Fold this protein.
Amino acid sequence: MSASLDGRFVRNAWYVAAWSRELGRSLMSRRILGEPLVMFRKQDGTPVAFVDRCPHKLAPLSRGELIGDLIQCGYHGMQYDSTGTCVRVPGQPPIPPAARLKSFALAEKYNAVWLWAGDPAAADANRIVDIPEYDRPGWGLVDGQYLHFATSYLNLTDNLVDPAHTSYVHRRTIGNSGGEDVPVKVEHSEGHIVAYRWVTNAEPVPVMKTYGSFKGNIDRWQYYHLYLPSNSYVDFGAVDTGGELTEKAKEGGFRSFTYNFLTPETAASTHYFWLHLRNYGVGIAQVDADIARVYTQTFEEDRDLLAAIQQQQEATGVREYVKLSIDHAPARARLMIQRMIEAEG
Amino acid sequence: MSASLDGRFVRNAWYVAAWSRELGRSLMSRRILGEPLVMFRKQDGTPVAFVDRCPHKLAPLSRGELIGDLIQCGYHGMQYDSTGTCVRVPGQPPIPPAARLKSFALAEKYNAVWLWAGDPAAADANRIVDIPEYDRPGWGLVDGQYLHFATSYLNLTDNLVDPAHTSYVHRRTIGNSGGEDVPVKVEHSEGHIVAYRWVTNAEPVPVMKTYGSFKGNIDRWQYYHLYLPSNSYVDFGAVDTGGELTEKAKEGGFRSFTYNFLTPETAASTHYFWLHLRNYGVGIAQVDADIARVYTQTFEEDRDLLAAIQQQQEATGVREYVKLSIDHAPARARLMIQRMIEAEG
Amino acid sequence: MSASLDGRFVRNAWYVAAWSRELGRSLMSRRILGEPLVMFRKQDGTPVAFVDRCPHKLAPLSRGELIGDLIQCGYHGMQYDSTGTCVRVPGQPPIPPAARLKSFALAEKYNAVWLWAGDPAAADANRIVDIPEYDRPGWGLVDGQYLHFATSYLNLTDNLVDPAHTSYVHRRTIGNSGGEDVPVKVEHSEGHIVAYRWVTNAEPVPVMKTYGSFKGNIDRWQYYHLYLPSNSYVDFGAVDTGGELTEKAKEGGFRSFTYNFLTPETAASTHYFWLHLRNYGVGIAQVDADIARVYTQTFEEDRDLLAAIQQQQEATGVREYVKLSIDHAPARARLMIQRMIEAEG
């Protein structure tokens, strides 16, 4: 299955192309879904994205310049408007009809610029992932975070429906041995998977020891939600042990939501944009800084391990040899992604 | 067409292998037309070039040493004379007939060592490009210049019959917007193309502002001559605006000739040797230094852009999508090179 | 013949995997015969080697940790005992039978950890190369030496049955021009080749000038023994010129044995472990240090040349063009290795 997905991507989906602060009046180049893109803002602030390649002789447009809302190629001065239509060929009045840039639909939400990788006509900004706690009083926000992963986005989606790995990979930050033997449950519906577990009567993990104020042992939940193909949020929290294990109980607990937006760069590398919402330490700059640092460390642990796994997959041509019960959700995610790609033809 | 030329080269042609000052009594290694060569001078100063590979076990001969006019392999001491004939195999009197180095015909002219890449018997030094102004009184010379380009020589020959790109790529040095809309004319004959234009009643370009003494606007010419496959000279100059646009007028003008000698290193990289002749600032060392600096900057602008284009060509397998009228000369040059290669079989 | 050996290795053989001092209670990763291995010592000191890849999702086990004698994967906590049997899958009582690590038979001898690359059941430590002078009074030892070679082990075995190359590659250390024209003799038997020569009435080579006390010219021997596939020792020494050229004479002479243990890392790179025994300067630390330095320099000369040759072989697809009489032993060694590989199927 892995092989059949290599280098193929779901196109009818919203991917984060950049944080809003990254785009301005200079030309920015970034590879997304295997294709180099050039991005900038028009004079009115609207973001624009094109394939970063002049159709004349393939010069990167990001080496050209902005003239008002026109992008001018740095090689022979061809100019394109913000729809990608060529409006000037120096020295040649008739403009060849093929002189067009492929453009993408963009939308801006949650301080991020989202790119619809498929037909722009089908782009519907209402389908961008919803973040209810964003800008809600009582919630502290750390956003604008980015990491580059030298691994397929599929190895990352595996992780993001796999609470079990935190006991080992992240025991210095968000995991510990308390949950080692607690099985993971999985539910899925159209375009969504959640893998979850409650670890009860357990010692708080490092991040909870630092910021929580528990009486002793805790009941801790991990709910790993994945919106296919690659937007994830992790609902993570704890209450003092002994109560009911319900959604209601979670509301009063120590709680955070980590949103992870994966954008394939190539078949073997991924842009990892993330933001974090929490209901503790709100408004305290030091806690903001700590969260950015601790989660960066956490994701760097994933990054280093998954880069090594990517290399092994490439060397062996295999993705896994032995299936465990914790692989149910990752396998389901890959299957659902494969079907989405196949449905797109 | 591009694909069919990839990694193929015209062999019956003179290429600059090195500047004369680069060759001496030590062994120099340089890859030319895809093949590693070892070069040196005999005791009498004559330059010699061989494939840099001992036919015994493929050791690079450039890691061996010169013993008089013999080159000795550093692995087992086999010695070759300056025709490439093996004259000694230590410990073994009979010399295998296959123990021969492939050698090349060389000629020295204009402070450069020229290599005939084809059958040495067909080498005719009279076919080396002629530089009438070289050593002529009233002309200032900057020679011995070199740049390495990570791009196919064909992307460079494109540029060297394309005056139009200077308006954009080189507007800090030898171009400006004055000529943007002036069409390019093309003429060609056996083994030669010239693409040219006159830009009239225009502002002087930066280099002319610095070194010229014009009354106001100028008539500026660009004549881009290419001798196939890859020796070029650019006849570039200006006169005060309003006169006739003739060869006669050029003789009295502010004028320079830039000679560009392209030697393919591999299918995707090129040695760029260049020299410059001018009829202004003659004998002034500061102008020599300025010319070396300004043109180096100019060619580095080409180098960076053409390396990016090479990467795009390799990623997409395409050379260009849209043909413009300015592509007439580059397309003609590629066609003529292709025919030369095909004629060689 | 070369092509048919590329990337294939004799498996039923002992290879040095590490010096004894390299292995301890931390996890060490090293690629051997193309495969990444993880190595460590059990609590009782016994060395263990596995393929460095968890069969679940291919995570390198060397990124996990040792828990007693169990190795625990750092991704999901699977634990393997020192036979490679999985003994724990967190959260899942039944252990899938396929969850096994491929392990290797190891043996420790001469301060080295030897790995049997084939079926562990066939491993017989008595077949490890014998070093009679090791720990023998009157012999000085330099061991624990290592170099990495970016070349096929076959290019190294070529060298190690080729005394002739020392006259050129190593004339600053263990060779000089005295032996240039002395032919090499070859003998071979099951699993063994020796190439040798006596260079008589010759000037001492640099290392003998430094450490020997000869009256004048010498009779010098080079006996290059190769135990297939890739363990070698060089019997090297000299006596004052004029005596008999016998094994008996060698015993009273200035003499050293250099043992070279080649372990293929990949098809194109090799681990080079070596040790040196000598009957001069015994017990003098400065001589130990000098030997380590001089031989390291000597092998670095080989390393640089053979890396260049490897590149030429890869670029041309050829190993050699012209066969000389000195190639008899290397060709024989390759043929014998090929037959060993073919016999293994």
Chain C touches chain A through 23 residues (CB under 8 Å). Residues 45 and 278 of chain C are 30 Å apart (CA to CA).
